[in-house]
Write a structure and sequence with these properties.
This protein is mainly α and 221 residues long. It is built from 9 helices and no strands.
């Protein structure tokens, strides 16, 4: 018989450890913004602070990214109630990529305003391809191995899979866009993160569209 209290305890340590990794990743992002010193102050503090706009941009993107990743991780674990040793390893893959996020973000901050911006954005993009794959693997493993709560609707579980499938496709597409336009790729990344900021809304939209498609197939005009 399903014991909700026991299941909550089963994932509690995994969630607590994961939250710690997310917190450290966000903390590392702000450490890349240094206080202006030395020659940076030759025009005054105001202009020295303005010159650091790539760092602010990178911090915004990095913070927004980690925040969205945490929200989706929290959402997933609101439905995942069992934890096996293999699943801990799968979850660790997500945390591995999250822990790496500050590095490509720092590279982006340094080179986004230089001739090496494209390479910096592509490193950034590869990170998020792996991020999207890790989340797809996390939910896919939980779904196929019945680690989710039995009272979670089957359509909701499948819609969540489709959402992460879209995330993988979007990150791959945006990576190739970066070969054509760095600004366009950055806009697409922010657009993706904005969508995944509200996973429940996104999943319900997929369910709604699927129902409309099913209805049109049953009753063709």
């Amino acid at each position: 018989m399903f014991d909700k209290r026991k299941s909550e305890k089963e994932t509690a340590r995994t969630e607590a450890f994961s939250d710690g990794v997310f917190a450290i990743a966000i903390t590392l992002l702000i450490m890349e913004i240094k206080v202006p010193t030395g020659d940076e102050l030759h025009r005054g503090l105001f202009y020295a602070l303005l010159d650091k706009w790539p760092n602010y941009l990178a911090f915004f993107i990095g913070f927004f990214t980690v925040l969205v990743c945490w929200i989706n991780h929290h959402h997933a674990f609101s439905h995942i109630v069992k934890c096996t040793q293999t699943f801990c390893i799968v979850n660790a893959l997500v945390l591995f990529v999250v822990g790496f996020v500050p590095y490509p973000t720092a590279v982006l901050a340094v080179f986004v305003n230089t001739s090496e911006a494209q390479t910096a954005v592509q490193l950034f993009g590869l990170t998020y391809i792996f991020m999207a794959l890790a989340y797809r693997f996390l939910w896919g493993y939980a779904y196929h191995n019945k680690l989710t709560a039995p009272d979670t609707d089957e359509k909701y579980k499948k819609a969540t899979l489709r959402m992460y499938d879209f995330g993988v496709l979007h990150t791959v597409f945006t990576f190739f866009v970066s070969f054509w336009s760095v600004p366009a790729s950055l806009v697409l990344y922010v657009f993706l993160f904005s969508m995944f900021l509200f996973p429940v809304w996104y999943i319900n939209l997929i369910i709604k569209l699927s129902r409309k498609q099913s209805t049109s197939n049953i009753h063709p005009r």
